[in-house]
């Protein structure tokens, strides 16, 4: 008897009936039109508080950097919201005008230390492959199946356990991603995508020089590192929990279905009002993956308007914390499991032989 034959293992729940492409396209159509005034208001109610927070940090430094550090944490929260504006521009959903999206996206990209065109290209690949076991590895969290892990070399198992360690995944990885990885274009990127990396790098040098002269280089770097750290850790957690929860959808090749990947493979992360505002409604990730052309300021209304979304089980803040202990995709049980779950299932299967 194999690991997957364990009769005591929980079986997947009966699959929900999915809407047809024609049905969901009709339901989301009216929410795909960007609103210039909503977009402009979101820029104002995000960038004005962000600039004010930096001004208050400047004043606080006259007394002590310890007064400024809590403000840097607030700046980090606002950077998450700036990243959502950047993200929507990358989908051409924030404004109707592509030029307005590109200009806004580039400027927001400087603030969040991410090259706009390069990220947009990678993120489009994520949307095209999310939930497809045959196309993992681009714009996602490294996820192995149970069988792949058991058949892997000792070195690869060690590397995978290291990569899924919460401290490395949510503390070290965000620093590496935003401070170092985004500074170099990846292989396969086009000329425009590569240029966007160098232009953002140049803009970042200018920003550091100007802000360093105003704040002092050491205080500025400490405050900026704090803000980017808060934003990066929060952002990586949001991305993780959007596609790493127990009953998430994964399928191989021809069996992969776009609608299922969106509605079952992307979470409905129900957050408290303040966190929902800071994260730009991205918790409605199932709606976003179904139709990336819906701007963030329409996501909640779209979710509330259609019956098809009411069957999507919400993932609460406290329940979501359990997702950090999930590590491997079990293809037979069709759910993510922990390393401990895998070992217990193996022992149970061996005892039944």
What do you see in this structure?
The protein has 353 residues and is mainly alpha-helical. Helices cover 61% and strands 4% of the residues. The chain contains 16 helices and 5 strands. It has helices at residues 21-28, 36-61, 65-90, 98-111, 116-129, 146-151, 154-163, 166-180, 191-215, 217-243, 258-263, 273-278, 285-290, 296-305, 317-320, 339-351; strands at residues 144-145, 268-270, 314-316, 328-330, 335-337. The chain has a 3-stranded mixed β-sheet with strand order 1-4-5. Strand 4 and strand 5 form a beta hairpin. Helix 5 (116-129) packs across helix 9 (191-215). The N and C termini lie close together (6 Å).
Q: Structural class of the helix and strand makeup?
A: mainly alpha
The number of distinct helices, counting runs of at least 4 residues, comes to: 16
Distance between the termini: 6 Å
Rg over CA atoms, rounded to whole Å, is 22 Å
Overall body shape: globular
Instruction: Spell out the helices and strands N to C.
Output: HHHHHEHHHHHHEHHHEHEEH
Strand order of the largest sheet: 1-4-5
Sketch the major β-sheet. Answer: 3 strands, mixed
- What is the chains' assembly state? single chain
The low-confidence runs, each spanning 5 or more residues with pLDDT under 50, are 1-14
Keywords, separated by commas or semicolons:
353 residues, disordered N terminus, 16 helices, single chain, 3-stranded mixed β-sheet, mainly alpha, two-stranded parallel ribbon
In short:
The longest helix has 27 residues, at about 215-245. About 60% of the residues lie in helices and about 5% in strands. The protein has 16 helices and five strands.
């Amino acid at each position: 008897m194999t690991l997957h034959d364990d009769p005591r293992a929980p079986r997947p729940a009966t699959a929900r009936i999915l809407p047809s492409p024609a049905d969901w396209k009709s339901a989301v159509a009216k929410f795909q039109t960007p609103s210039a005034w909503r977009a402009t208001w979101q820029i104002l109610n995000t960038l004005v508080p962000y600039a004010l927070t930096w001004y208050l940090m400047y004043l606080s430094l006259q007394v002590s950097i310890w007064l400024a550090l809590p403000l840097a944490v607030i700046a980090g929260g606002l950077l998450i919201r700036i990243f959502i504006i950047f993200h929507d521009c990358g989908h051409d959903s924030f404004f109707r005008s592509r030029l307005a999206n590109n200009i806004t996206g580039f400027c927001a990209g400087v603030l969040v230390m991410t090259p706009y065109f390069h990220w947009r290209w990678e993120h489009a690949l994520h949307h095209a492959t999310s939930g497809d076991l045959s196309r993992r590895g681009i714009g996602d969290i490294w996820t192995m199946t149970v069988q792949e892990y058991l058949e892997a070399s000792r070195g690869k198992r060690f590397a995978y356990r290291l990569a899924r360690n919460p401290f490395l995944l949510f503390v070290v990885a965000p620093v590496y991603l935003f401070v170092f990885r985004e500074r170099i274009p990846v292989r396969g990127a086009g000329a425009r995508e590569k240029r966007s990396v160098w232009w953002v790098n140049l803009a970042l040098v200018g920003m550091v020089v100007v802000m360093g002269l105003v704040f002092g280089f050491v205080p500025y770097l400490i405050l900026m590192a704090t803000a980017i750290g808060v934003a990066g850790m929060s952002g990586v957690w949001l991305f993780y929990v959007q596609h790493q929860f127990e009953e998430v959808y994964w399928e191989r090749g021809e069996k992969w279905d776009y609608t299922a990947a969106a509605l079952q493979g992307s979470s409905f992360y129900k957050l408290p009002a303040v966190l929902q505002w800071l994260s730009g409604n991205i918790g409605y990730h199932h709606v976003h993956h179904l139709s990336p052309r819906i701007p963030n300021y329409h996501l909640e209304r779209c979710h509330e308007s259609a019956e098809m979304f009411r069957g999507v089980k919400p993932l609460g803040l406290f329940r979501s914390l359990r997702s950090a202990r999930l590590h491997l995709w079990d293809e037979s049980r069709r759910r993510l499991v922990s390393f401990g779950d895998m070992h217990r299932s193996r022992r149970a299967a061996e005892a039944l032989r």
